[in-house]
């Protein structure tokens, strides 16, 4: 997907430009603010840019309908599409929003690592220790990371508005803004539902565990990771109700499959690839669909052991391996793989007769495989 590769490069360059501007702004206030930009650059230097890609191909799938021959765009040179810079800015804004969400998520989960490097709050904590400052390093780290996440949220909104300002169709710009606003609300309340589930599950009937876990997937991840970026992109191009409905019909089941893959990696992932400790979700006590299915399939004694150990941050490697084997032997992992495959099929079928550009739908179908067959 050469077009996607070039797009990722353009988005990365747009992010770098925005951070350069913010670095100058913060330096004019105080040199003590340099760690904010340094941490932001670390967070945004890597990643797979899936949200940016879905935004772009959502836009392209609608924009291509109005163009003869449904051509792929040139991402450089004099024939650059007139509104492509606007889409690049909006796609980059989604990446900044994602970085903000990761910073806050790592604080909530007390995660030590992010992509193989110290999470933002741990990096600020280390800075406190290195400098020998007064007070508690962990408190300083959490407070600083919260503020970094807030900064990234503001910078994301600013970049999003810069992109919208370049869209000639003001109704399309307003529709994209509405999608962005909805996405921010949904992922925030989805995060709360996730936190709530970790602490309240014992007071809920067992029969509610799976539907509640599914709701967390939908609102914390599926909409925000796939459906919303697609809808934002489609809205930028002035997409009709039928076109946006088709993008959602593709995006939601794919987003569910995307998060289910994440849940599998959170339990069984290779730390050398994921950049996080093996079994991290087990230590964090994530009440995922995978865990819900395992509890349904395991005998009562095994369920009691799982419930006792799940969420213990002090689990050693032997205990993690034991829980991994227990979950795997229950058949839950195989069932989740079947659910992932089913959702990918449903997503691809939604593209079959969709009123969207052909080249873009082919790219979306390829992306569906990439986001659900990943190992990190």
Automatic annotation (TrEMBL):
Which terms are listed as keywords in the entry? Magnesium, Metal-binding, Transferase
According to its UniProt record, which cofactors does this protein need? Mg(2+)
| PROSITE patterns in alphabetical order | POLYPRENYL_SYNTHASE_1, POLYPRENYL_SYNTHASE_2
State the Pfam families in the record. polyprenyl_synt
Gene Ontology terms for molecular function: metal ion binding; prenyltransferase activity
What sections of the sequence does the record tag as coiled-coil? Answer: none
The source's domain of life comes to Bacteria
The text of the family note is:
Belongs to the FPP/GGPP synthase family.
**Which named protein is this?**
Polyprenyl synthetase family protein
Q: Source organism lineage?
A: Bacteria, Bacillati, Actinomycetota, Actinomycetes, Micrococcales
């Amino acid at each position: 997907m050469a077009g996607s590769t070039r797009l990722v490069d353009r988005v990365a360059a747009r992010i770098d430009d925005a951070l350069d501007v913010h670095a100058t702004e913060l330096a004019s206030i105080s040199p003590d603010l340099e760690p904010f930009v340094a941490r932001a650059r670390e967070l945004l230097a890597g990643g797979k840019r899936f949200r940016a890609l879905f935004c772009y191909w959502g836009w392209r799938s609608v924009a291509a309908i109005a163009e003869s021959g449904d051509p792929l765009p040139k991402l450089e040179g004099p024939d650059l599409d007139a509104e492509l810079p606007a889409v690049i800015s909006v796609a980059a804004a989604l990446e900044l929003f994602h970085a903000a969400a990761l910073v806050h998520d790592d604080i909530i989960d007390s995660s030590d690592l992010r992509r193989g490097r110290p999470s933002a709050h741990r990096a600020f904590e280390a800075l406190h220790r290195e400098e020998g400052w007064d007070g508690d390093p962990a408190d300083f780290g959490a407070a600083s990371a919260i503020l970094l996440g807030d900064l990234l949220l503001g910078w994301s909104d600013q970049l999003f508005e810069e992109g919208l300002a370049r869209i000639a169709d003001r109704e399309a710009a307003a529709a994209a803004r509405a999608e962005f606003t909805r996405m921010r609300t949904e992922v925030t309340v989805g995060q709360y539902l996730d936190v709530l589930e970790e602490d309240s599950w014992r007071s809920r009937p067992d029969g509610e565990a799976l539907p509640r876990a599914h709701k967390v997937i939908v609102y914390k991840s599926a909409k925000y990771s796939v459906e919303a970026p697609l809808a934002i992109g489609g809205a930028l191009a002035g997409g009709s109700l039928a076109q946006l409905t088709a993008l959602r019909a593709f995006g939601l089941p794919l987003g569910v499959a995307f998060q289910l893959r994440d849940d599998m990696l959170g339990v069984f992932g290779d730390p050398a690839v994921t950049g996080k400790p093996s079994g991290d979700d087990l230590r964090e006590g994530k009440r995922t669909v995978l865990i819900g299915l395992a509890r349904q399939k395991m005998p009562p004694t095994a369920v009691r052991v799982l419930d006792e150990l799940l969420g213990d941050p002090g689990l050693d490697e032997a205990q993690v391996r034991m829980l991994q084997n227990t979950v795997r032997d229950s058949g839950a992992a195989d069932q989740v793989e079947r659910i992932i495959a089913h959702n990918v099929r449903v997503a691809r079928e939604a593209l079959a007769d969709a009123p969207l550009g052909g080249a873009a739908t082919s790219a979306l179908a390829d992306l569906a495989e990439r986001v659900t067959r990943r190992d990190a």
